[in-house]
């Protein structure tokens, strides 16, 4: 276990929307340090979202992210030779991180041409409460609900 908690890194807001959350999303999406490529893909996706929904693209993306973020998760804990799935409440930072990762993961898994196209489709679906990322959140919540009996083992 480490002695000191690492200082949280300060993120610079993105150039177009001046939002740190966008930078965080792009950092998760980035491959091999290609940040400008990741920004281009993200902005193209949001342009597609704006064209398809005729709404503010940043608000649609934020709504999608909120719909994907889980509130609880199950963690394995070994007690007396048996392993229990214990539902635990998530800290805000982890909620956001998991939501971002799921949105990107299921956008990549979609069929379509180009990452911008896939990401736009997943963002629109998630903002409506549909799509695989939202399904993953609901499955996680169901798992936590079904293991609620073991919540008293929480540390």
What does this 3D model show about the protein?
57% of the residues lie in helices and 10% in strands. The chain has helices at 20-29, 35-53, 57-68, 92-109, 115-127, 131-146, and strands at 72-79, 82-89. The model has no long low-confidence stretch (mean pLDDT 90). The chain is mostly helical and 155 residues long. The radius of gyration is 18 Å and the shape is globular. It has a single domain, classed as Ribosomal Protein S7. The chain has a two-stranded antiparallel sheet with strand order 1-2.
How would a textbook summarize the main sheet? 2 strands, antiparallel
Tell me the fraction of residues in β-strands, as a range. 5-15%
What is the fourth-level CATH superfamily? Answer: Ribosomal protein S7/S5
The total count of strands amounts to: 2
How far apart the termini lie comes to 17 Å
Helical proportion?
55-70%
Key phrases:
155 residues; two-stranded antiparallel ribbon; mainly alpha
In short:
The protein is mainly alpha-helical and 155 residues long. The protein is built from six helices and two strands, in the order αααββααα.
Topology:
Blueprint: H1 20-29, H2 35-53, H3 57-68, E1 72-79, E2 82-89, H4 92-109, H5 115-127, H6 131-146
Antiparallel strand pairs: 1-2
